[in-house]
TrEMBL record:
It catalyses: gamma-L-glutamyl-L-cysteine + hercynine + O2 = gamma-L-glutamyl-hercynylcysteine S-oxide + H2O. Keywords: Iron, Metal-binding, Monooxygenase, Oxidoreductase. PANTHER family: HERCYNINE OXYGENASE, SULFATASE MODIFYING FACTOR 1, 2. Residues 1-22, 319-339 are annotated as: Disordered. The lineage of its organism: Bacteria, Bacillati, Actinomycetota, Actinomycetes, Kitasatosporales. Pathway: Amino-acid biosynthesis; ergothioneine biosynthesis. Its EC number is 1.14.99.50. Fe cation binds at residues 67, 153, 157. The keyword Oxidoreductase applies. This is Hercynine oxygenase. Belongs to the EgtB family. It comes from Streptomyces flavotricini. Its cofactor is Fe(2+). It comes from the Bacteria.
């Protein structure tokens, strides 16, 4: 069986008027959904809360709000439509590369009302543009890419703002229904054998995929076993109870340093009380649920657990092969379940719930080999550094991905409950520093066959 870039499932929009109307509708829906979520996250707190910095790791929420509008203005109104800057004096304030998060609260930022007005002003003009522009003729416009990129950007900031909510002290302000127990049959086995051989990694066909997901290319892996579900809190508690945080054998040297420097002995937001592990989740303190995927662990913690368990983290290629490769056809699909866009039956996405679903949920979202919850629930750390694919081309700007390539960043895959479907695909790549644990990160383990 061979895999080739042509085995990458295509999803081109048909050309012609009906195709362009579909694209317009898709872009309009994606932008509208992102703004509704932004409003939910920023209307939930007071103006004082919006302008406060709840953690030096995060921006004040009001910075994210105006930055969302500013990036939309930059890419859609200035680059695509050729307009001048609406408010040139504020542009430098919202350039993420000019001001690190820690210094943003000291900037003369727009206040909450001004930031909302600015984002709405930009959005009104963007909808006018979307109605009249031909969605073709340039790399930014083809398939409505720039509109899709901006909808993804806003949703990614919504995820960042949800992290700020998680770090924020005080009473809970967000609510959502719980996912409930798994529906359908439990997985047949704890791990799944993925056959060795080539498969198609990355994509050249997904219209709104970002530069680092491109191009589709052949990748070979050996045969490997991978966990059917993400590592659960109860499994992780066994590592903690076994003295995992006190045994240097399991830790990469920098990870060992980090847990000692910061006195870390459990995932972030956990605390031990009266012989029980509790966690704080969006302002609520509750017993750590045994059957949920573990959340808020660093790459070092994930790596140490895997060694303790006699296993390892999957490589990024192994993760994507487990998620996309259909051994029956040799094709790589868009998602583990096929090419269909995610529905609530497939995965826990889009902040529909404010927590991961229990391990074993979403049998309808399983891969052809039966691996579950690859998409949604928790971002999954892989063992791999964030590197370009062969043939990578920075687009539309170097700062999107290229400047982050290298050994400092580890790749996370699959999205979390906080990720919207528009920014989640079998090919989507996230990256972060291996010390990070405020993100919605978990993991699953693997071993050579
Ligand atoms: Fe941004």
């Amino acid at each position: 069986m061979t895999a080739s870039p042509s085995a990458d499932s295509t999803r081109r929009t048909p050309a012609g008027d009906s195709g362009r109307a579909d694209l317009r509708e898709r872009a309009f829906t994606a932008l509208t959904a992102a703004r509704a979520r932004t409003a939910l996250l920023t209307d939930a707190v007071s103006d004082r809360d919006l302008t406060a910095q709840h953690s030096p790791l995060m921006s004040p929420l009001v910075w994210d709000l105006a930055h969302i509008g500013n990036q939309e203005e930059l890419w859609l109104l200035r680059n695509v439509a050729g307009h001048d800057s609406l408010h040139p004096e504020i542009d430098p304030l919202y350039d993420a590369f000019q001001h690190p998060r820690a210094e943003r609260p000291k900037l003369p930022l727009l206040g909450p009302a001004e930031a909302r007005r600015y984002a709405a002003e930009v959005r009104g003009r963007v909808f006018d543009l979307l109605e009249r522009t031909a969605l073709e003729g340039s790399a930014l416009l083809d398939d409505g890419f720039a509109f899709g990129m901006i909808a993804q950007h806003e949703q990614q900031h919504d995820e960042t703002m949800l992290i700020t909510h998680q770090l924020r002290p005080g009473e809970p302000v967000l609510t959502a229904p719980d996912p409930g127990p798994p529906q359908g049959p439990p997985p047949a086995a704890a791990e799944v054998l993925v056959p060795g051989g080539p498969f198609t990694m990355g994509t050249s066909a997904e219209p709104w995929s970002l530069d680092n997901e491109r191009p589709a290319h052949d990748r070979d892996t050996g045969a490997f076993w991978i966990d059917t579900v993400p590592v659960t809190n109860s499994a992780y508690q066994a590592f903690v109870a076994d003295g995992g945080y006190r045994d240097e054998r399991w830790w990469a040297p920098e990870g060992w340093d980090q847990i000692h420097r910061h006195g870390i002995e459990a995932p972030l937001f956990w605390r031990r009380e009266a012989g029980q592990w509790l966690r704080r989740r969006f302002g609520v303190t509750e017993p750590v649920p045994a059957d949920e995927p573990v959340l808020h662990v660093s790459w070092y913690e994930a790596d140490a657990y895997a060694r303790w368990a006699g296993r390892r983290l999957p490589t990024e290629a192994e993760w994507e092969k487990a998620a996309r490769h259909d051994p029956a056809t040799g094709r790589s699909t868009r998602y583990p379940w096929g090419d269909e866009d995610p529905t609530p039956a497939h995965a826990n996405l889009g902040q529909r719930h404010l927590r991961p679903a229990p391990a074993g949920s979403y049998p309808a979202g399983a891969s052809p080999l039966g691996v579950r919850q690859l998409i949604g629930d928790v971002w999954e750390w892989t063992s791999s550094d964030f590197l370009p694919y062969p043939g990578f081309r920075a687009f539309p700007y170097r700062e999107y991905s290229e400047v982050f390539f290298g050994p400092e960043h580890k790749v996370l895959r699959g999205g979390s409950f906080a990720v919207d479907p528009v920014a989640c695909r079998g090919t989507f790549r996230n990256w972060d520093l291996p010390v990070r644990r405020q993100i919605f990160s978990g993991f699953r383990t693997a071993r050579d066959a």
